C-alpha cells in the first residue's frame, strides 16, 4: 500500500542550480531523490511546494512523495540525513493523508530577503544577505511594501520570461525586521511568480535609496510592465522561509522553526 510521506527540508542553495530537476543536474530535487533511492531502492519523483532558483536558500521547503516503503515516519528524517550532503538537512518527516500535495495544498508561503547594511560585507553572512553599504530609508520601504498587500496583477513584478498563464496573486502580509546591521524583508502570499520576490526586494531598495517614492508602487502595479519597477535583487539574499497548509490536509502548521525548537 502506497504511503504519502511529507518532509520539511532546509538547504544552503549557494552551490546548487535551484530546487527543481533540470537537464544540467545539480539540484536539490536530484539530491533528495538520490538519497531516497539509496534508502528504499525506489526511483520516484518528489513534489516540492515550489521552485527556488539557483543560489536561493530554504529554511522550510516542503515536499512529498508516495512510497511503498514501510519505514516508520519517525525514522525517515534521520535515515535520509545520513545520505545527504551537509548543506541539505531534512528537519521533519511524517505520513500525510492521501490528498496532500506539497504544491497544490499550500495556502500561504513566506519568503525573506536579507540585506547587510554594514560598511564592509560580513564574511560569515556573505552567502545569505545582499551587501548594501549606503543608507536606506526603512520607513519608506515599509510604506512601499504595504501597497503590495491584497490581490493584484503582479506582471510588473515578474520576469519577462514568466510562463504563467496569468499574474494575479494575493499578498497577505509584508513586514521589515531590523536585526543589527541586517534588514530582513518578509513577504507572505498565496503564491509567487518567477523572480517576484527578488524584483520586490530590488524595487524596495530603490525606494530606500530615494530613487522611488512609496506612492509609486500602485502605479507600477497598474502599469503591468516590468520596465516600470526596480532591478532584480541578487539570488543569495533570498530564502524560502515557511509554507502553511490547512490542518485537514496536513497534521500541523508546517514551520521550520517549529521543527527545530
Structural account:
The protein folds into 2 domains: 103 residues, Alpha-Beta Plaits; 133 residues, Pseudouridine synthase I, catalytic domain, C-terminal subdomain (Alpha-Beta Plaits). 22% of the residues lie in helices and 28% in strands. It contains 6 helices and 10 strands. Strands 1, 2, 3, 4, 5, 6, 7, 8, 9 and 10 form a 10-stranded mixed sheet that branches. Helix 3 packs across helix 4. The longest helix has 14 residues.
- The N- to C-terminal Cα distance equals 33 Å
Helix content: 10-25%
CATH topology description of the largest domain: Alpha-Beta Plaits
Q: How large a portion of the residues is in β-strands, by DSSP E?
A: 25-35%
- From the alpha-carbon coordinates, what is the Rg to the nearest angstrom? 19 Å
Number of strands: 10
DSSP helical segment count: 6
Net shape: globular
Descriptive terms for the model:
Alpha-Beta Plaits; RNA binding; disordered C terminus; 261 residues; ten-stranded mixed sheet; PsdUridine_synth_cat_dom_sf; PsdUridine_synth_TruA; tRNA pseudouridine synthase A; 2 domains; alpha+beta
Amino acid at each position: 500500500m502506497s504511503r504519502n510521506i511529507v518532509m520539511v527540508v532546509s538547504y544552503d542553495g549557494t552551490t546548487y542550480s535551484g530546487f527543481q530537476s533540470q537537464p544540467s543536474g545539480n539540484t536539490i530535487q536530484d539530491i533528495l531523490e538520490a538519497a531516497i533511492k539509496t534508502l528504499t531502492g525506489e526511483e520516484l519523483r518528489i513534489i516540492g511546494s515550489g521552485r527556488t532558483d539557483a543560489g536561493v536558500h530554504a529554511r522550510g521547503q516542503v515536499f512529498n512523495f508516495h512510497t511503498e516503503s514501510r519505514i516508520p515516519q519517525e525514522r525517515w528524517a534521520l535515515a535520509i540525513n545520513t545520505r545527504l550532503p551537509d548543506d541539505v538537512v531534512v528537519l521533519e518527516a511524517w505520513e500525510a493523508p492521501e490528498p496532500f500535495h506539497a504544491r497544490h495544498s499550500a495556502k500561504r508561503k513566506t519568503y525573506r530577503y536579507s540585506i547587510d547594511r554594514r560598511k564592509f560585507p560580513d564574511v560569515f553572512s556573505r552567502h545569505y544577505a545582499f551587501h548594501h553599504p549606503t543608507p536606506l530609508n526603512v520607513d519608506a520601504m515599509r510604506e512601499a511594501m504595504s501597497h503590495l498587500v491584497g490581490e493584484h496583477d503582479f506582471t510588473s513584478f515578474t520576469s519577462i520570461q514568466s510562463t504563467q498563464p496569468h499574474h494575479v496573486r494575493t499578498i497577505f502580509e509584508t513586514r521589515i525586521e531590523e536585526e543589527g546591521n541586517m534588514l530582513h524583508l518578509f513577504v507572505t502570499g498565496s503564491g509567487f511568480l518567477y523572480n517576484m520576490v527578488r524584483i520586490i526586494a530590488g524595487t524596495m531598495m530603490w525606494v530606500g535609496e530615494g530613487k522611488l517614492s512609496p506612492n509609486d508602487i500602485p502605479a507600477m502595479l497598474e502599469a503591468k510592465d516590468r520596465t516600470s519597477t526596480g532591478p532584480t535583487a541578487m539570488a543569495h539574499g533570498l530564502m524560502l522561509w515557511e509554507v502553511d497548509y490547512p490542518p485537514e490536509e496536513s497534521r500541523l502548521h508546517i514551520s521550520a522553526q517549529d521543527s527545530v525548537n
